[in-house]
Amino acid sequence: METETKRTDKEVLVKGIKTMGLTVILMFLGPTLFYVGLSNPDKPLYIPILIAAAIICILAIYFAFKGLKTIMDSMFKKS
User: Fold this and answer.
1) Residue 25 to residue 33: CA distance in whole angstroms
2) What value does the mean pLDDT take over residues 15-33?
3) Which end of the chain offers a freer environment for a tag, N or C, measured as fewer CB atoms within 10 Å?
4) What is the DSSP string of 8-64?
């Protein structure tokens, strides 16, 4: 009997790494926008900048989980 060895699916792994790259960018962009928004409360774009920063932070969390799941699926794929 031949047993097939499990190998990492490289295409799925690359997709997961790209998602994690986007996550890193969003993880820096969100808090930076929060800082900029909170440091200028008298500006007219105060509320829209804070809303955009909150959305970017939520997206960073979402893409982090999605990227980690994709990387795990590439290593431990379900048959």
Assistant:
1) 12
2) 96
3) N
4) --HHHHHHHHHHHHHHHHHHHHHHHHHHHHHH-TTSTTHHHHHHHHHHHHHHHHHHH
